[in-house]
Design a protein that fits this description.
This protein is mainly α. It has helices spanning 11-21, 32-55, 62-89, 98-107, 109-135, 138-141, 153-156, 169-180, 200-211, 229-240, 242-251. Residues 171-242 form the NB-ARC domain.
Length: 255
């Protein structure tokens, strides 16, 4: 079945159908439109949590698994209800003439009342699962605290005072002029090369300290020979947008 997965049940396809149901193509009774909008919001939030639970399958307790199972079953029940309604109501009402459109609405009036009753019952079940979600504190159980990374002591040396270094002012000015040349305002890459121990990193950090304030977004990262791309991207994000980084950590985003 398209749109069905072991992690989220029928959530993906269901949310698409709810969105379709909210279009003008399907004329709903008063009040039903808002109830379907409510279902759409709540189920979207539940889908996010289901995906997060799937990422920590081995750590789930019986309470979380029970909630997940009930929500997946609920998604199947709601989808079945929507499918039956769409089938009974048909589509293309907007393309009919006035008389045919009126006759069609009269013929499908019972179906509209029926969906209103079923949506009300399903909404009650969704509210119940939302309340259980809060009681069980499932969102908190999925929270992954920021990892504490040990900093190589040698890295701190990069931020030491460089005023005592000999002949660093000249290279700093040279790199500064390359990066800040207003005649060439485009993406630039400047490589500092040389044998080990010449102070390449120290020079780069001094340039960063000197002109970094001229940029709205900036980040300084150290890349080892064994590249960990995800941690590298998180390091950059933590420096350019702390709010986005916090959201990334709390919601368990993956890069």
């Amino acid at each position: 079945m398209a749109g069905v997965s072991t992690a989220t049940g029928a959530m993906s396809s269901l949310l698409c159908k709810l969105a379709t149901l909210l279009t003008n193509e399907y004329k709903l009774l008063a009040g039903v439109h808002k109830q379907i909008e409510f279902l759409q919001r709540e189920l979207s939030s539940m889908q996010v949590l289901l995906e997060r639970l799937a990422d920590m399958e081995e750590k789930l307790d019986t309470t979380a698994k029970d909630w997940r199972g009930k929500v997946r079953d609920l998604s199947y029940d709601i989808e079945d209800c929507i499918d039956r309604f769409m089938d009974r109501l048909g589509s293309g009402e907007a393309k009919r003439g006035f008389m045919k459109r009126t006759a069609h609405r009269l013929r499908t009036l019972w179906a509209r009342h029926d969906i209103a009753t079923q949506i009300k019952d399903l909404k009650a079940r969704v509210i119940e699962e939302s309340q259980r979600r809060d009681r069980y504190k499932l969102d908190e159980s999925c929270y992954t605290p920021p990892q504490i990374v040990e900093v190589d002591p040698r890295i701190t040396a990069l931020y030491d005072d460089v005023s005592g270094l000999v002949a660093i002012d000249g290279p700093v000015k040279d790199i500064d002029s390359l990066l800040m040349d207003e005649k060439e305002m485009q993406l630039k890459v400047v490589a500092i090369v040389g044998s080990g121990g010449l102070g390449k990193t120290t020079l780069a950090m001094e340039v960063y300290r000197k002109i970094g304030g001229d940029f709205q977004y900036r980040a300084s990262v150290s890349v080892s020979r064994t590249l960990d791309l995800e941690n590298l991207l998180k390091d950059i994000l933590s420096q350019i947008d702390k709010d986005a980084y916090g959201e990334c950590q709390s919601e368990g985003w993956r890069f």
